[in-house]
Structure formats: structure tokens, C-alpha cells
Amino acid sequence: MTTLFKTSMVAGLIAAGLAAAMPAQAETPFMVRGRLLTMQTADKTDNDQAIRVSDKALLDLDITYFVSPNISVELVLTNPQTHDIELSGQKIGSLKHLPPTLLAQYRFANSTPITPYIGAGVNFTKIWGVSLPAGSGLSLENKSIGPAGQIGVDFAFDKNWSLNLDAKYIKLDVDLRKNGVKADTVNVNPWLFGVGVGYRF
């Protein structure tokens, strides 16, 4: 099975298990969502080299806590991802990363089933397993911390289930080093566009 399929199964089983554990009529401050995302990265560095990190489709699982009908906090999680590193369109290496993101949201709650929201927060990306040409002396910084922004909308089917559309921007810059000295900064800075299903407990 592919990693994407395994992650989908795990997310579905978690959501189903939590839903089964709660009475249908009970409503708690928690909601979980599973989303299918497309990650579109920037194609530049500070010094305009043609180095980029590949785009990718992936799954995420997020957990939302409602402070009030209008204010919520969302933790976005996914499994470790592998990306190609490209130079002028040719693969020169790869990396792995894990990018949890925490967002505070304002939800435009109203009497309709449609609830738009905006969010802002922080992303922490851990990078490891970097593979670059042997003998090049090139390496990448092993982490990135940066701001994240979000806009989205929930379409409620009933008091529990909803359809979600979501877009996020993450400021993710990684230093490129040559023999241990900073040579450039790779601007990954991805947009993530997602569609998913949510369950409110």
C-alpha cells in the first residue's frame, strides 16, 4: 500500500472511532477533519538560482478546538513527506520533512450551513534525510519556523458532518550551505489547497 493510502485509512479509522465513542446528539468543542491537499512550492532562491522543492499531493489530519462559535484553534498534522530537490528542472537530490502547523481562527458563524473562516499562526518544519550530490559540499538547514495564513469555508451537512475547502500559505525558507557556509536561501513558501470532510463531536 502507498503511504498516501495508509494515511487515508488511519485518518478515517481515527475519525470513525472517535465518532463511534460519542453519542450522535452530543456536541463538544472538538472537530476533526481529513483533507486531501496539493502543495505548490515557490520556484526561487534569494540569489535567483533555479533550485526548487517539488510540488506534491498529500493528506492531512487536523484537530480543531472551538473556544466559542467564532473563535477556534486548529492543529494541522500529516505524516513525514519526501520531496525531490531540483536544479533547472533536473532532480539533484531529495529531503524529508514534517510540518505541523498551529492556527488561531476567526469563524464567521451565522444561521446558515456555510461558515467562512480566516486563520493565522505558526509553522514548524523539521527537515532531515537530505540527499545532495556527493562531493558538492552542499547541505540544507534542518528546520524552519515561520508564519502561516489560512482562508477556508465549512459547508455543514448536519450538526456533525461538513465539507471543507481550505487554502494555506506557509513562510518556509531553508538555508543552503556550501561547505558549512551559507550560500543561499531556498524559498519553499508553499501554498496548500485542500478539500476534506469534518466531523464535529
Descriptive terms for the model:
Enterovir_OMP, 201 residues, single chain, OMP/PagP_B-barrel, eight-stranded antiparallel barrel, mainly beta, signal, 1 helix, Porin, OmpW/AlkL family protein, OMPW
* Uncertain ranges: 1-13, 21-26
Look at the helices and sheets and give the structural class. mainly beta
Assign a percent range to the helix content. under 10%
How many E strands? 15
Subcellular location: Cell outer membrane
Protein name: OmpW/AlkL family protein
Keywords: Signal
Organism: Derxia gummosa DSM 723
Can you walk through the features of this model?
It is found in: Cell outer membrane. InterPro entries: Enterovir_OMP (IPR000758), OMP/PagP_B-barrel (IPR011250), OMPW (IPR005618). Its main location: membrane. Keywords: Signal. The longest helix is centred in the N-terminal third of the chain and has 19 residues, at 3-21. It is built from 1 helix and 15 strands. Helix content is 9%, strand content 62%. By secondary structure, the protein is mainly β. It has an 8-stranded antiparallel β-barrel. Strands 2-14-13-10 form a 4-stranded antiparallel beta sheet, with no helix packed on it. β11 (143-156) and β12 (161-170) form a beta hairpin.
